[in-house]
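The aim of this short unit is practical: by the end, you should be able to scan a pair of folded records and say something sensible about each. We start with the first protein, listed as its amino acid sequence and then its structure tokens.
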Amino acid sequence: MPATDRYSARGRFLAVTCLAGLSLLAGCEKKQAAAAPPPPKVGVITIHTQPVLRTTSLPGRTASVMTAPIIPQVSGVILKRLFVEGSDVKAGQQLYQIDPAPYQATYDSAIATLKHDEAALVADRAQAARYKPLAAAQAVSQQSYDNAVAAVKEDEANIASAKAAIETARINLQYTKVLAPISGTIGASAVTPGALVTADQSTSLATITTLNPIYVDVNESSTTWLRLKQEKDSGQLETTPDGSVKVTLTLEDGSTYSQTGKLQFSEVNVNESTGTVLVRALFPNPQHLLLPGMYVHAKIDEGMNKDGILVPQQAVSRNTRGDAVVLVVNSKNIVSQKVITIGRNIGSDWVVTGGLKAGEKVIVDGLMNATPGQPVSPTDETAKYAVNGAA
């Protein structure tokens, strides 16, 4: 065969071989395209607003409404103790008896002085009355009459002073009966009969504490307090008809206190060192279960957020900065990540305070299969999670 014919046949063979190779490559690409996996399936819920009770749980301590240390107002020896330690006492009830003998003697002496001054007044008035016409007739000197009138006025002053002395002696005699200034529970006695006490001493004889009702003091951050005030003023939070704010307690052992309290007031100044505001609640305490100084957790019902948003806890994770994040699906079924702010939990849901709005679709199932920027095949599972309030 001529050389030209051999080269021509080889060219045709190579061309056919290349075409066959290209056909095979195109077939492989079609097979690979046909074998690409479909978008992963995920379960989503559609967010919408609903009424959510806004509460805040804060640690605090109980404090007595009234506390009265018993301080003697006169000096003397204690003769009797007239109460049982740890018992309830009433205002005005006698607690101790201080020896009244010296005060009784002072009182009796003041009365005797008064009677002496009253007798002197009678005599001096009579003398002044006799001297008046005699002085007019110049039968006695004017000086004698003036002295008689001055003696009457002096007697009147002495009587006033004696009456004041009697009142002072009566008060001191009454103070020998040490009375309860308030009603409440009295603690241990610091003295026993026979002990010498002094007026206005620094050490109290005992202390009375009012236990029913009782205060619970908590400290709330000023930023939270400011946000709540703004939400209430704008109408986002609805309070009770009477405007009161209810408070419930969890005790140190984890049990719930049976009585419900009400918020009394908040401090008007912010603590500069802690950035908190003192909030005080008043609780009934008929069984004296709460004692001053106990550590408790108070849950404050701050109001109803009529446009609240809840999301299942399993849908929320944390990014590297510690922010709460969720995965959302847009109208083109593309996944994106959103940073949200969350508050307390209600059951298995988080209360969302920012970052989400009604109508958005949040992934709750298949989170491991969802990648931001990639498409997914969402299935609406709103009804499934409606039990927890997420829908």
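Turning to the second protein, read its sequence before its tokens, just as you did above.
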Amino acid sequence: MKTAVVTDSTAYIPRELREKLNIHMIPLNVIFGEEPYQEEVEITAEQFYEEVKTKELPTTSQPPIGQFVELFEKLEREYDEVVSIHLSSGISGTYQGAVSAGTMVEGVKLYPFDSEISCMVQGFYVLEAAEMALRGEDGESIIRRLEEMKQSMRAYFMVDDLAHLQRGGRLSSAQALIGGLLQVKPLLHFVDKMIVPFEKIRTRKRAMNRIVELLGEAAAQGGEYRAVIIHANREAEALEWKKELEALFPNVEFMVSYFGPVIGTHLGEGAMGLGWYRK
């Protein structure tokens, strides 16, 4: 059984890893004025955070359905089936675009998967699927494993400024206003595919400490975990945090990733997150 694995750019899986594991990627877009850029193809995270210092914050858009159709047509000639894993359908139409494209390509056996999340936490599903596909496992087995992973998958993140999320329609204006007035650094997470506040915390340090507590509660249940620290242009801080966490949690394997252009547009520079699942 030959199974292809597809994801979108918001998983922020480095190119070398995508190539090594044969992962096919469809990019989302950031639009500065009238100029669209495909993230991870035409603009990197580093370039994006430089650009937003001097330009108005961009907008974002999902991939055109034609891009999915073109990719699926190509894959249908080489593979028996396609597993397509995407960011939460509650914040983007990308997943639905993949589903619709699957109905438009004759002969493609598509297994779409809504990660109900984004960034490298979504990437964890993709890496697992790609490794299984390389071992010759079929789409049905892969989806079953991804659903199993979803039971222990958790992610929490904090933003420095709620205005970005509110402006992009990912958080209500009332929540943004209250957060701004109180100088709150809210912890956010995904519930029912949407970004919602988890707790309101006054300082960045306390917010990050609270995330550590939540990881500790999970890790204390035993077993091996895989976790990712995600930063919005705060690499040094993320690497320092990784060192601290590795000392605290010997049963957790940590990596560092980033909020790229599309997600960074909605969270703003300085956001930090932590996600994990039980292996």
